[in-house]
From TrEMBL:
Protein's UniProt name: ABC transporter permease
GO CC term (a single one): plasma membrane
The family this protein is said to belong to: Belongs to the binding-protein-dependent transport system permease family.
Subcellular localization: Cell membrane; Membrane
Topological type in the membrane: Multi-pass membrane protein
Biased composition (Basic residues): 243-252
Biological source species: Leucobacter viscericola
Amino acid sequence: MNLFSETLAWLSDPANWAGPSGIPTRLGQHLAITAIAVLLAAVISLPAGVLIGHTRRGAGFVGGLTGAARALPTLGVLTLLGLAFGIGLAAPLLALIVLAIPSLLAGAYAGVQSVDPTLPSAARAIGLSPTQVILRVEVPLALPILVGGIRAATLQVVSTATLAAYTADFGLGRYLFAGLKTRDYPQMLGGTILVIALTLALDVVLACCQRAAQRVRDPGGTSGSKKLSDATNHDRTNTVQHLHLRRKGSTP
């Protein structure tokens, strides 16, 4: 029996689908730590990225920070945090948060910065406050890129969350570490297949969310930026014509 048939037998074994170490339990743990890491990273990075994109200040800081964070070896960070916090989920969770921040920060910054500067100016001209400009104009128009950043961060975290088993008995990574320790290669390959399948499934779901965000921003196939720009140009033309008629009427 070769490795692939043994792996298929391991995946189809009912004993591996039940109990506290069963595949559904490990899958739920893997999804839970992924969701928590991305959520906490989003709380930190999305407001900062939106603010930097809105003010057009700090672009160099964002580029340097994201580049430096992406260059960090996740396993090395996890080892250092494991030495600091000991056995448990604290170390892998913090390492995954550090991993997720660059993509989320870059997505928020790039999305808001990509908005046509004339649109926030027009919104301020009609009396919207800075907060309203961000929430009603910039964020809706930047939504597809924002979701793209969330998608990239989620895929990075879910594929790296196997390292949570390095300091804790948690997630699908446990199959890899346990199989490596006991030389149970079908178990290792089975765990790898499960991680790949979960990553691909999340990618499909988030790709659909990104397309939905694009449709929300561009209903009917016309971009919101173009619509608002056309409306602004139309209003400007009407104003010029109105002033011209008033001037003509006041001329004796």
